[in-house]
């Protein structure tokens, strides 16, 4: 690296990248905390089923387990992509 | 009277659990409390080295649990403080040598002997040793570094503390959770290369009980077998002193979390 590059180099704001990544993963892990072990597997199988009809990414599916006055609610949400839905190629 | 049981835990290894346990126990003893500090890392004993009593270990925690020694025989009196005792981990036994009943018996014995505080130095991970170290705790100090894997692991530990402890199981009121940020480098935080105190607090949703700055003195202290809190000249030692005071209920502002411009003499001669 030349001396000019060194002088021009700006500090990367890697801390904000770390914070954002942590915010997402911590929220996801908290939402499934205490959840049954089969949840990740179920998520993958659901993804396979959904993929037959719409092209979605694993990140588009979120599963939340909520405890609501004595009973548990499993909430599944799928963010559908823009554009017309159709069977995946 | 029963002893207050404080677990020092983290999930991730190498973040400063043993350094923290040693300084916390020493600080509490300096405040006049009768303190025992226990190494739960069976097979990988290290607290004795950090406390500087490695050559005086005769009996260990596992010996007491198995009835091969009495608590009195196994407790090593600190050479600097008469009211501070170390219970070493076994170096030869395997992890299964500890049982929940055995640990409970030892903790009850310490309460009967009039101890005010028992500091439990947890092994890394979330397996049996870590579980046993936290199970009976009244308070927890979760040691975290401003780094992604450590922060994620500590969130996992905070979840376990809220559900897998005796207090949680019995519904005795939640265990008091303290977050201790260690190896903090204000210069790198200012350069946005490191998560800030505020970032970590926001992600984990819990405020810190202390921030220990990264300091060369921590290694020097472990080299010498003297808990860093005894090094009054080091900022890490002073920050541990503040942390202990806060655990005892005193209010103290955070120090050493901002970049300070060093004067010429400080730069030349060090601080």
Automatic annotation (TrEMBL), chain A:
MF GO annotations: identical protein binding
Assigned keywords, A-Z: Cell cycle, Cell division
Pfam annotation, one family: MinE
GO BP field: cell division; regulation of division septum assembly
Top-level taxon of the source organism: Bacteria
Keyword Cell cycle: yes
Any coiled-coil regions, as ranges: none
SUPFAM superfamilies linked to this entry: Cell division protein MinE topological specificity domain (SSF55229)
Function: Prevents the cell division inhibition by proteins MinC and MinD at internal division sites while permitting inhibition at polar sites. This ensures cell division at the proper site by restricting the formation of a division septum at the midpoint of the long axis of the cell.
Membership in a protein family: Belongs to the MinE family.
Name the record gives this protein: Cell division topological specificity factor
Organism: Dyella thiooxydans
Automatic annotation (TrEMBL), chain B:
InterPro entries from the UniProt entry: CobQ/CobB/MinD/ParA_Nub-bd_dom (IPR002586), MinD (IPR010223), MinD_FleN (IPR025501), P-loop_NTPase (IPR027417), ParA/MinD_ATPase (IPR050625)
Source organism superkingdom: Bacteria
Pfam families, A to Z: CbiA
Alphabetical UniProt keywords: ATP-binding, Cell cycle, Cell division, Nucleotide-binding, Septation
Every CobQ/CobB/MinD/ParA nucleotide binding domain range: 6-228
Keyword Cell cycle: yes
Keyword ATP-binding: yes
Quaternary structure annotation from Swiss-Prot or TrEMBL: Interacts with MinC and FtsZ.
PANTHER family: SEPTUM SITE-DETERMINING PROTEIN MIND HOMOLOG, CHLOROPLASTIC, SEPTUM SITE-DETERMINING PROTEIN MIND HOMOLOG, CHLOROPLASTIC-RELATED
Similarity comment: family membership: Belongs to the ParA family. MinD subfamily.
Function: ATPase required for the correct placement of the division site. Cell division inhibitors MinC and MinD act in concert to form an inhibitor capable of blocking formation of the polar Z ring septums. Rapidly oscillates between the poles of the cell to destabilize FtsZ filaments that have formed before they mature into polar Z rings.
Name of this protein: Septum site-determining protein MinD
